[in-house]
Structure prediction request, 674 residues.
Amino acid sequence: MTDPNVMTLDEIEDLAFRALTQAGTSATNARPLAKATAATEANGIASHGLAYIPTYCEHVRCGKVDGQAAPSVSRPAPSVITVDASTGFAHPAIELGFKELIPLAQAQGVAALAIHNSYNCGVLGYHTGQLAAAGLLGIGFTNAPASIAPVGGRRPAVGTNPFSLAAPDGDGAAAVLIDQSASVIAKSEIMKHARENLPIPPEWALDPDGQPTTNAAIALKGSMAPSGGYKGVGVALMVEIMAAAMTGATLGINASPFSGTKGGPPKTGQFFLALNPALTSGGLFNERLTSLVEEMRDQPGARLPGDGRRAARRRAERKGVNVNPTALEKINAWLAS
Amino acid sequence: MTDPNVMTLDEIEDLAFRALTQAGTSATNARPLAKATAATEANGIASHGLAYIPTYCEHVRCGKVDGQAAPSVSRPAPSVITVDASTGFAHPAIELGFKELIPLAQAQGVAALAIHNSYNCGVLGYHTGQLAAAGLLGIGFTNAPASIAPVGGRRPAVGTNPFSLAAPDGDGAAAVLIDQSASVIAKSEIMKHARENLPIPPEWALDPDGQPTTNAAIALKGSMAPSGGYKGVGVALMVEIMAAAMTGATLGINASPFSGTKGGPPKTGQFFLALNPALTSGGLFNERLTSLVEEMRDQPGARLPGDGRRAARRRAERKGVNVNPTALEKINAWLAS
Prediction:
């Protein structure tokens, strides 16, 4: 007897692809998103894997994202690539940009990719990891609807805005993959607690008066607590400047929500930097990174950013992924509709 | 009656310059450091202003830094500049690099500057602010001797490692200047408490077993608490990878201390990215940044990173700086010696 909830990575990609195309996404746009969905499940991040497919399908149907969009690429300067995602999915826009970014960064030493008119890009580290796989150091920023207030303020001004850095191992993967948001906790966790009428820890969020709250519903009307206080606001602001101001995308204060069907396309942005480590370090990068990683790993119980995803991926490649049955049911219902 | 502790910015620069040159620093190397000292005092950051001059002088004398060093610049790729600081001060190495970095980033859209064989660069945001003054978005990283342990570990592996982002206001200054370390508190605060035999708050540092401690002396044998837990470790690691691995500089685990006279030159590194916002944003950067800043400022009591420094600077330009009398005494004693 095989467990129907255990799927291979190919099966996950195929399921995501079928649902997305049935919803009206072009095959060209669905493929990178389906691949990322399988990789995300493999990395053990179920919240951003198949669980997102019903939302993506719904967003194609309601016009929050244009499933048929054709992203277009420009090179406004020798080391800069811009992509207009044309209110389509972020994944095909990033894939298109990376095709030019990777050889450009290898030759120039550093190159930048600025994407606007985009959408939620899923797990940011999935994308920077592609740069590391190509032997480059990748840095990424992506903005989201505003949910964190400025220091001393109460009204959300910047999103939970993650950044990511992927350092190449020189062998087709990332030796270190940092991928972290600017808030104490993901907003989806607070939404989940609100749906289930459960209290939240007081350090997660603030009420509309800027005071800590344990009421998830009130927290959603207030703001998310930044990680490390004002330093979390600093990270969120850095990301907002890079992903929105530096790309000409929509600021989090003006963006429509990533959830629900209202408000049209969010038109948020992504910014990526790709660097050639051998050129900047005089050939010393691999030795330095290896020493740093070894020093950290050499401590009992210590772990590095990216270790959890790598372990999950190895398990998934051997044994498949035990996917969320609710997500599976929803996708199958969508396919049958 | 004039207060001898109130000095103009020119007087501060002159005093720093005289002390540095008397200690054996060349005029070429002392000038950028003296200028930065005056700007740092103007920005209200007394801990990194004149208070550092006696240490700098001592380090020139003991050979921890080569006051006569001639930094050398190379361009290993079209968009990459590297500087070998030759175990001299970081400031002249950065100034030399910026002379090439600024026009290069303006033309290429993005350019990188990697510095190795360097020294403590003082206030990182002083340097990124120079890039913003030139109309560029500047990002900076600098590493320091290891003091933060990895997640799950107990032994320091990365420094309190700050990053900085300066966003240009298009009018010769920074509209936003983020400059923050990866730890809850500066290590110098813990050293000060240890000297004065004062307890520290339990959230500042960890003992050698990785447990919170209120004993400053024990904290100095343990590790610094990262800001926001594992996310602070992520920031410190990002900075270590950029400032040391990407430059070929010395890792924090192998660097000699920034304080004291032992261990020779620390040979740490700095990494800067400079970007042309008009080119990456299709000309929309100024409008986006202005909207973001206005939204944040429009809230009663809210403040932006860099606001405190700007207010201090305006005051200093009008009224001079009330400098730390102890620092002044030490410098005058040095000059008279």
